[in-house]
Amino acid sequence: MKPKHQRLMLALVAFVALIGAGFIAAAALKEEASYFYTPATMAKAKIEPGKAIRLGGMVQKGSIERGADGVSITFIVQDRDATQKVAYRGITPDLFVEGSGVVADGRLRPDGVFVADSLLAKHDENYVPKELADIDMNTAEHTKDTLSK
After folding, report:
1. For residue range 82-104, what is the model confidence (pLDDT) as tens digits?
2. pTM (whole model) above 0.85
3. Using CA atoms, how far apart are residues 48 and 93, in angstroms rounded to an integer?
């Protein structure tokens, strides 16, 4: 075989190996993808009880009920079309309030209640610290230039 053909075969083998490695990596990452179900997609999907999933949506206003033990909580996650009852035992994140976004890792019980192992509270893009909540940033006092002429 001529050196030209050897290089061509080597390049072809390397290309096939690279494509194969890409497919293997894609298959491995597909199993690790961390998407979440919304209440509507969860209702449509046939999720078997006990399977670990993520649930995401908004905490329905007026739905948070705290247990007498101080660490148990139930609430309702909603999206545009459906709702899902969630039970959680633990300390909730500081940003966890009614009307805010939440992503919960957990499992669906046979009775249809989602039992969360962990909660991630999501804030909106208009976040303002509590200390600055009463300040109106649009007033003239706060928009003056600090450099004098």
Report:
1. 999 999 999 888 888 888 889 99
2. no
3. 28
Read off the tokens for 132: 């600055």
pLDDT tens digits, 27-68: 877 655 657 888 988 888 888 889 889 998 899 999 999 999
Burial class (CB in 10 A: 0-12, 13-18, 19+), 43: middle
> In terms of DSSP bridges, do strands 114-122 and 83-89 run parallel, antiparallel, or are they unpaired?
parallel
C-alpha closest to that of 114 among 122, 104, 123, 124: 104
CA dist 66 → 13, 74, 92 (Å): 62, 7, 11
CA nearest to 54, candidates 93, 103, 89: 103
Where in 10-78 does DSSP place strands (E)?
A: 52-59, 65-66, 72-78
Lookup: tokens for 33 = 């993808």
The residue among 55, 66, 58, 36 whose CA lies nearest residue 112 is 55
| Interatomic CA distance for residues 108 and 43, integer angstroms | 11
